[in-house]
Amino acid sequence: MSIDNPHPVIILIRGLPGSGKSYIAKALLGELGNKTVVMLDPDTTDYKSEDYISHTKTLRLEGVDEALHVYRFLRAKAYKGIADKKIIIWNQPFTNLEIFNKMVTNLNIQANVNQTILPLLVVEVEIENCVAKERVKSRKQSGGHGPSDNTFNRFTNDYRTFAEEGYNTVTVQGEEDVSRSVDRIMKSLNPLL
């Protein structure tokens, strides 16, 4: 599918580590097309790229806490995607509502600066905690990434739906076929395009 969007759109994919967010994001990218989409994911960011190194060098000079460098890098990419009228897929657990609200506010401010609208779709990937934890364990055993047990438990304790916060939300199941999840997301996304 090739989309010439008159305005940017942001899709925030949230869920526990191991819920299937990355698989869904990649499948959605395949559906929407590389030229249309800006893909943001802290787990797949190239931390050795010239772009990232240059960005973090600037942040260090500004005295920005190192813990915020990845977020600031992804946010800068999102801001550019807004200016370029792209579909932005941001894949991250997003467990803290206060931080999430602040991020969405900043993205909307950036849309206003660019004199455009920014429709938002929140995709929540549901999965049983034990299944997600097993997936993370398996991924780490094969050399992949994943949070520590303490971090996973914190995510599990903190995670709740944001649908009641008024966000345009679609829920998908992390254990179902990815194509079914993408179909459900596309049905929610099409009116926003």
List strands and helices in order, with pairings.
Elements: E1 9-15, H1 21-32, E2 37-40, H2 50-61, H3 69-83, E3 87-91, H4 97-113, E4 120-126, H5 129-141, H6 149-158, E5 169-173, H7 178-189
Parallel strand pairs: 1-3, 1-4, 2-3, 4-5
Give a description of the structure.
The protein is α/β, with parallel strands linked by helices and 193 residues long. The chain has one domain (9-192): Rossmann fold (3-Layer(aba) Sandwich), CATH 3.40.50. It has helices spanning 21-32, 50-61, 69-83, 97-113, 129-141, 149-158, 178-189; strands at residues 9-15, 37-40, 87-91, 120-126, 169-173. The model has no long low-confidence stretch (mean pLDDT 93).
CA-CA gap between termini: 13 Å
Q: What is the CATH topology classification name?
A: Rossmann fold
Mean pLDDT: 93
CATH superfamily caption = P-loop containing nucleotide triphosphate hydrolases
SS strand fraction: 5-15%
The biggest beta sheet is recorded as: 5 strands, parallel
> Whole-number radius of gyration?
16 Å
Overall strand count: 5
Question: Strands of the largest sheet, in order across it?
Answer: 2-3-1-4-5
CATH architecture field: 3-Layer(aba) Sandwich
Structural class: alpha/beta
Q: Helical content, roughly?
A: 40-55%
Order of helices and strands: EHEHHEHEHHEH
**How would the global form be characterised?**
globular
Which consecutive residue ranges, at least 5 long each, have pLDDT under 50?
none
* CATH domain class: Alpha Beta
What's the number of domains? 1
Looking at how many chains there are and whether they match, the oligomeric state comes to: single chain
Number of helices: 7
